[in-house]
Write a structure and sequence with these properties.
- α4 runs antiparallel to α6.
- The protein has one domain.
- The radius of gyration is 33 Å and the shape is rod-shaped.
- The chain is mainly alpha-helical.
Length: about 160
């Protein structure tokens, strides 16, 4: 009689975790410290400041603030003072916020791509499990056919 187990499927550890529901997508909140109070406060405060500074409204406010000192830089009639104003005052203040806004936009797009990849991997995993079920059903049919063939051969031999 043929062996009933044609193939012994052993799912990968990550597959087992995913099917058990213990594998979740990575979130920003999960990356924040959970230890002591100071670490949690520092992370919370840094996120609040970054969200505040990382807006175009903040960039506009910084531009207005920088423009207050522009007349003084122009009055100095010194190229060094004007270049210094442009690089140290205007660019640093305004570009800081603009760069953070850009990074936020890029991060949001990356998060969407990451979530789509996660969902795609989840779908592929479930499809692979269905394929394993289908193959197991085919193995059963093949096993049944081999059993019947063995009976037919035994009858014809006698």
């Amino acid at each position: 009689m043929p062996d009933d187990d044609i193939y012994d499927y052993v799912p990968h550890r990550r597959t087992q975790e995913k099917l058990a529901g213990s594998d979740k997508p990575v979130t920003v909140a999960a990356q924040l410290p959970t230890g002591n109070t100071m670490a949690r406060f520092n992370a919370w405060f840094a996120v609040k400041v970054t969200r505040g500074v990382g807006t175009m409204w903040c960039a506009y406010a910084f531009a207005a603030l920088a423009l207050i000192s522009l007349p003084e830089a122009i009055k100095s009639h010194s190229a060094v003072t004007l270049v210094s104003w442009i690089s140290q005052t205007f660019l640093q203040l305004v570009l800081l916020s603009v760069i953070i806004v850009g990074q936020n936009v890029l991060a949001a797009a990356a998060d969407k791509r990451s979530e789509a990849t996660y969902n795609d991997a989840d779908a592929v995993l479930h499809e692979a499990v269905k394929i394993q079920d289908h193959l197991a059903a085919q193995d059963q049919v093949l096993s049944d056919l081999l059993t019947k063939l063995a009976r037919v051969e035994a009858q014809s031999a006698s």
